[in-house]
């Protein structure tokens, strides 16, 4: 089920899109959220990072990845010379989630919630026109690649979303609990950087 106005969302500019998300009532998550979490970073960033959904801190602060998983993500990005700051000289990223609202008690997103929220992420990517997308975790991957395969099966090669190279990696919250996979996530970041170097913006 898509929101009735998916076609209209695909035409919105940044400010209109941000407003639309802020007032969204397309699924039941609007009842329990404190606020929507639109995304953060440079609006024409070369790197687009896509996570799952806001957690408790994100719901409180209105910014993606500001909790424990976010600290890990920031460290991973810093190692590549990337930051979420909007200004140069650092290379820029835009960070967004697949869902813009926190699921109660951080439960997994439901298919209908993902479907209703999807036009927002799709429009964000179309507006940013990134040179590379890093999809973290199974829900970002499900939404962008339409694949239910495990991260372990999809990582390690370059996929594509609407002509943009896309790299799959583990979600940072997962990495906090599964330290052995951190080395693999690091390989994924290296592959992303190599890919970024070799692909111009489309
Ligand atoms: N996990 C996510 O996927 N996104 C956030 O914003 C925070 C935690």
Could you characterize what this model shows?
It is a single chain. With 202 residues, the protein is of the alpha/beta class. It has a single domain, classed as 3-Layer(aba) Sandwich (Uracil-DNA Glycosylase, subunit E), CATH 3.40.470. It has helices spanning 6-9, 14-22, 29-32, 56-61, 68-79, 111-128, 138-145, 151-154, 172-177, 182-198; strands at 40-41, 47-51, 82-83, 91-97, 132-136, 158-161, 164-169. Strands 1, 2, 3, 4, 5, 6 and 7 form a seven-stranded mixed sheet that branches. The protein is globular and about 40 Å long. The mean pLDDT is 94. The structure holds uracil.
Largest sheet properties = 7 strands, mixed
Bound molecules: uracil
Q: What is the share of helical residues?
A: 40-55%
The Rg value, from CA coordinates, equals 16 Å
CATH homology superfamily name: Uracil-DNA glycosylase-like domain
Which architecture per CATH?
A: 3-Layer(aba) Sandwich
Number of strands: 7
Mean pLDDT: 94
What is the rounded distance between the termini? 30 Å
Order of helices and strands: HHHEEHHEEHEHHEEHH
| H/I helix tally | 10
Categorize the overall geometry.
Answer: globular
Structural class: alpha/beta
Strand content: 15-25%
Number of domains: 1
